[in-house]
Write a structure and sequence with these properties.
Blueprint: H1 14-17, E1 26-32, E2 39-43, E3 52-53, E4 55-57, E5 60-70, E6 73-81, E7 84-86, E8 93-96, E9 99-106, H2 131-137, H3 153-168, E10 185-186, H4 191-201, E11 205-210, E12 215-221, H5 222-232, H6 249-259, H7 283-293, E13 297-302, E14 312-318, H8 319-330, E15 351-352, H9 373-383, E16 387-391, E17 397-402, H10 425-430, H11 438-445, E18 448-449, H12 455-463, E19 477-481, E20 488-493, H13 494-501
Parallel strand pairs: 10-11, 18-19
Antiparallel strand pairs: 1-5, 2-3, 2-6, 4-5, 6-7, 6-9, 8-9, 11-12, 13-14, 15-20, 16-17, 19-20
Helix pairs in contact: 5-9, 8-12
Length: 503
């Protein structure tokens, strides 16, 4: 049997749904996600007269797809898999005179099949899409393609109201794990020792304990070490590598306060008050504290006494943990949030590479692997971001450099032997990674998504990052890439998601 002639399961069905001569053809993606050696497509749109060969998706050989232009209207179709007619139970279908067939209704505008996730059963970290399909759903000149799924303003407000309602009625106590540990550092600990502790513990942030005051007084993060290394690299600085042996965290925090102009009326430096929450605070308030104060985490502190003495540090709350709670709650009732099914390129979320004719858009911060480590650290601080995409000459994603990567410089005291202006980003990323295979690094570090991915898929990936490397505590940003080429098109962060959902 060849692809030009075949025995049709429903030749007469063409009379019911044949295309109108001269009608506009609508590109549509058809997917068979259940494996096979050879898979073909046929339907009423080609009068059941031809088998259209489907191609396996790159990186996921059990998924087959084809982009085919069909006239608007109601259509029936089937898959011819390894010599047998099949239909997909996970797509709309109906029973009729010619057996069970899948169905689709297309309007006159370009569209794609709702509810089909071609890689749902594939373990690939990066979805692969077809370039023709990408052209169908891509935003052009700031205007949405007409066939792209969207929600009304009323549905958007309903989604936001339900997320806000959930966060307002659930407390920070629900973020506490059944078991775990929280590492706190003595504020009088030498900076050098704190640097090594964070690396050895595989964390990038720790609360600070003041024994004299008997309370948590602040947080030490990877950003502090970035600022410290920048000071070490500054010839005008009085802070030397040797002084890290005796220079305490409290001294650094006080010096940092002077540098940032936090001086009281008597000329004394002061740090801003600790941003914290209690176990009974609702999740919405905790989220707003993180967003409004631009911090990565908020310590959850409990005290049985009214004056706040003898506090107990229970947990470090982050937006990633809060997003996990949202995902768990709405996972089996996603229909309550219509916005979840909309592609991220169709909603105002994230930072996108400026298009032609958009001179006012802020450029996306990216670096080449040959860029100096100094430029990477400066960009992390100036752009106030948690990670930077590392790209090739075609802006295709190669890796990312995160704030937390700075702790890898503690290995073998590498920070004492490097010049920030001479070490490249590529060399910095190699430190501490020798014990991991290239596959682990590629699949775990580069957290990506496509512009056509639904908001639901993006949220799930941000809430449950596949990152287990010891110097990375979590992923707060997804790099949006073009299918196939992996050309960077934008970035979406957990902060972006919550700002959008909370309006």
């Amino acid at each position: 049997m060849n692809s030009g002639q075949m025995f049709s399961p429903g030749m007469d069905a063409a009379r019911e749904t044949s295309g109108v001569s001269g009608a506009v053809l609508v590109p549509n993606r058809f997917v068979w996600p259940h494996g096979g050696r050879t898979v073909f497509l046929s339907g009423s749109f080609n009068r059941w007269s031809e088998l259209l060969p489907m191609s396996p998706v790159e990186g996921c050989p059990t998924v087959f797809q084809i982009i085919w232009s069909v006239p608007p209207g109601f259509h029936q179709f089937k898959f011819f898999v390894d010599g047998e007619w099949q239909h997909d139970d996970h797509q709309p279908y109906m029973s009729g005179e010619y057996g069970t067939v899948n169905t689709v209704f297309l309007t006159a505008e370009p569209s794609f099949m709702p509810g089909i996730n071609p890689l749902a059963s594939c373990g690939s970290n990066m979805d692969v899409d077809n370039e023709a399909f990408q052209r169908v759903v891509r935003i052009s000149d700031g205007t949405l393609t007409e066939g792209m799924p969207r929600v009304s303003e009323a549905e958007l407000q309903v989604s936001r109201h339900r997320v806000s309602g959930f966060l307002s009625t659930h407390t920070a106590y629900e973020l506490l794990p059944e078991s775990g540990k929280v590492v706190a550092l003595d504020i009088d600990l030498p900076v050098k020792q704190a640097f090594h502790i964070l690396y050895e513990q595989g964390i990038s942030i720790a609360p600070l304990w003041d024994f004299c005051k008997g309370q948590i007084v602040g947080v030490l993060s990877a950003l502090d070490f970035i600022l410290i290394l920048r000071e070490l690299g500054n010839h005008c600085s009085n802070l030397t590598e040797e002084e890290l042996e005796t220079h305490t965290i409290s001294a650094w925090k006080e010096g940092k306060a002077y540098l940032s102009g936090q001086i009281d009326g008597h000329g004394r430096a002061f740090s801003r008050p600790l941003i914290h929450a209690g176990p009974n605070d609702n999740l919405k308030d905790v989220t707003l504290k993180i967003l409004q104060n631009e911090v990565a985490t908020v310590p959850i502190i409990y005290s049985a006494s009214e004056d706040g003495s003898f506090p107990q540090l229970l947990h470090l709350a982050s937006m990633c943990g809060i997003l996990k709670c949202v995902c768990r709650y709405f996972r089996h009732c996603s229909e309550l949030l219509p916005i979840l099914n909309v592609p991220i390129c169709a909603i105002p979320v994230g930072t996108w590479v400026p298009k032609i004719g958009e001179p006012n858009r802020r450029p996306l911060a990216m670096l080449k692997p040959s860029a100096s480590l100094s430029s990477a650290l400066n960009l992390l601080v100036q752009a106030q971001v948690s990670s930077i995409p590392i790209v090739d000459d075609n802006d295709s994603l190669l890796d990312i450099y995160c704030r937390s990567d700075i702790t890898a410089l503690a290995k073998d005291r590498a920070y004492a032997h490097i010049n920030l202006n001479e070490m490249t980003v590529h060399q910095a990323l190699q430190l501490g990674q020798d014990s991991y295979s290239p596959y682990e690094l590629k699949t775990q570090r580069c957290q990506m998504c496509l512009p056509s991915d639904s908001l639901h898929k993006v949220i799930e990936r941000l809430a449950n990052p596949a990152v287990h490397l010891p110097w990375i505590s979590g992923v707060r940003r997804l790099v949006i890439v073009e299918a196939g080429s992996k050309r960077v098109e934008g970035i979406v962060s957990i902060s972006d998601i919550f700002r959008f959902l909370l309006g």
